[in-house]
Amino acid sequence: MSSLFEHGLIRTAAVERVVAPIASHLCHLVLLCDGAEDPEHFTQLEGAAQAVAKATENMAAEASRAIRDTEDEVLHMEMSSLFESVTVSGQHVLLAAQKLNIQPSLTEHREELITATQNVFLGVVKVLLVDDDANIRRVVAASDQVLECLSDLGSSIDIKSLLKYFQVFSEALLILHSLTMERANALQDPRQTEQLLDSLETLRRCISMLHTAMCTTIKHPTSEEAQAAKRYILDKVQSTVNDIIKTLRSECHSTSMGPCGYYIERRNSLLQLLTSSTTSSIQGSSFDSLVRDIVFHCMVVANSSRREFQQKVVAHCRHILQFWSDIKMILKSSEDDSEQSIWI
């Protein structure tokens, strides 16, 4: 699972908010499975499996609603093929956990549960990445529209056609600007965000020269300087729009594994969040991501440690995830109570 974060497949904060709690649930399942030796562990194991199964059901339902009215045929086709597999994989986790509860001594039951959790995570990530690809396609389509309008604008032969094409170009550019800004604000990679914002700023600065150069070449068609200026600005706009497309399709440089001191900062952030006196500070925060990152880091440390330290780290991770699960249940309960009080 950690490789998905290391390789930057989780690009946006919206995807991260969905993936983080599911990743933590699955880590919890695997660790409980590894240490399931007493009845209490088995009770926790089945409860965690039920949470995963419910989460996959909810995701499939949300994804189904999201594509109901979509005009994106690729999104509809790719997403439709994932609904059933995601739901079934969640139920498989629950069945594997119940099977392990009946025959805890069988190694193949543990292996089946671990494999099932991996399949759930991969299925969930596929759903999220298909949706994210659709968002990228929308921006790319807007970019293509700007380039098409730019070509029409560049072929203007008189002021009347210039004004007509310039208006259409400006409208297409506004749509591209809006979609690109939305994408830039959603990205987790600051390098990509900066590149997109720089490209938008370059396009903004090009508009005035584009208008001037086009008017000049129409009024003075034999002027070499005017023609050179026209070629320069058309090429500049085209290359900048292509830079936006290139950035959108480039790989994200994830910082999930973090530089030196990254996990100390994540630990301190989590402790600060937990010392807050209100649940509202946790709800809507990066609580799930903080827990997941800390557990992933600890598991990496455990993997390279001696056996006795490995067991201690794994036990601590199991306790952290159990506390995380308990806190999530408390937060969910407080949300339900608030919703009920509205209708009383």
Tag the structure with descriptive keywords.
mainly alpha; Four Helix Bundle (Hemerythrin (Met), subunit A); 11 helices; disordered N terminus; disordered C terminus
Question: How would you explain this protein's 3D organization?
Answer:
The chain has about 350 residues and is an all-alpha fold. Among the domains are: about 150-250, Four Helix Bundle (Hemerythrin (Met), subunit A); about 255-335. About 85% of the residues lie in helices and about 0% in strands. Helix 10 packs antiparallel against helix 11. The longest helix has about 50 residues, at about 105-155.
Topology at a glance:
Layout: H1 2-6, H2 13-34, H3 39-66, H4 73-102, H5 107-154, H6 159-186, H7 190-219, H8 224-249, H9 262-274, H10 287-303, H11 307-343
Class of the domain at 151-249 in CATH? Answer: Mainly Alpha
Unreliable runs: 1-8, 340-344
Shape: elongated
Q: What is the rounded distance between the termini? A: 44 Å
Class by SSE composition: mainly alpha
Question: What gyration radius follows from the Cα positions, in whole Å?
Answer: 26 Å
Question: How much helix, percentage-wise, in residues?
Answer: over 70%
Full CATH superfamily name of the domain at 151-249: Alpha-catenin/vinculin-like
As an assembly, this protein is: single chain
Total count of helical runs of at least 4 residues: 11
